[in-house]
Amino acid sequence: MKTAILVTGALGQIGSELVPALRERYGAEAVIASDIRVPKGGAAAGPFELLDCSEPAQIREIVRQYGIGTIYHMAALLSAIAEEKPQAAWQLNMGSLYSVLEIARHHGCAVFLPSSIGAFGPSTPRDATPQDTIQRPTTMYGVTKVAGELLCDYYASRFGIDTRGIRLPGLISHVAPPGGGTTDYAVEIFRQALRYRHYTCFLRADTRLDMMYMPDAIRAMIEVMEADPARLVHRNAFNVTAMSFTPEELAAEIRKHIPDFVIDYEVDPVRQAIADTWPRSMDDSAARSEWGWKPDYDMAAMTKDMLDKLGPTLRRAADPANES
Ligand code: AKB
User: If you measure from the C-alpha of residue 189 to the centroid of ligand 1, how many angstroms do you get, rounded to a whole number?
Assistant: First the structure.
């Protein structure tokens, strides 16, 4: 990987863990975190730049100033929020990607773009969803994800830009909360289980979706960018998955650690309608054979680790001695 790395949307759910992992691997000074908001409290462990991705001049200036060789473009609106604000979602998700790709073309940068299970739609096979299949999503989020995959393919074949990406399932993390996604329940459930022994889920009990624990997702993002280009057939939209479960199954797993945990349901029709068009489980054999993808965490291992890590974090946050 070339010289410095720029991460956009660095304060989001993924960026909050991607930046430290990249800094650990390539050195703190080599990774420039950027976001439209300022980080809360604490000294930054490396360079940080305020960046509004709707302003191409700002992206260009950072790329020029730091000699950026790779851009992890994480700034985007997630599925539920994109359905509330479809115009803003198109503008951010597509407008900023176009700017990033054009700047990459002029400055010779590699680009990573996260795609999603949201890139599929109701006519896609929902079980063992193939790598190459029908993609007719019915959400604005999905439209921007498919268009993003295609645009990255185009810049690779037309201009020789080293674009790469993966289709992420729902991500579970104990570090930063998600914001505005359909799979967010799988994070909220842990916080509520530890705090109140109770969670009201916005998806139906039997809604099966692909999921992944954040350490696996971060590793996948780094590994796909480091993969031998000669082995890559797909480049921009690798299916990757680690586990597939329903809210009811996750609640049963949590109950092995918190026996009095109770889940009930108040279904949000918007998010349920989105989830009902997404894969129940993806076939990630292309990622496995082209760059050696293999997850470390299944549902049981993820649940144990989430509860072990989140418990002390929530206790620290509730301690008045830690109020700033
Ligand atoms: C969302 O729910 O919008 C995201 C995703 C699966 O892309 N977590």
Answer: 16
